[in-house]
Specification:
The chain is built from four helices and two strands. By secondary structure, the protein is an alpha+beta fold. It has a two-stranded antiparallel sheet.
Length: 81
Amino acid sequence: MRAIAADRSDMAALAITRLSANPFYNAQLRSTCIATQVESGHAVNALPQVARATVNCRVLPSEPIAEVKTVLKRRQSDLNH
């Protein structure tokens, strides 16, 4: 717990802590993003050509928002390839 309090970006400390095993505490130890709205397709019997998601992020005060945006854009790029 001291390691996490000292440096929330210490991934080794986050990985071994028992707090990470509890979803309630896990979400408080790192920034989280979730798709809150998803839209796709035009018919129930056709594969959608385009899909769109609204993503809501809860960002830790110590984490730069630009860094979160970069990760989201990288994930989007991964999905498009």
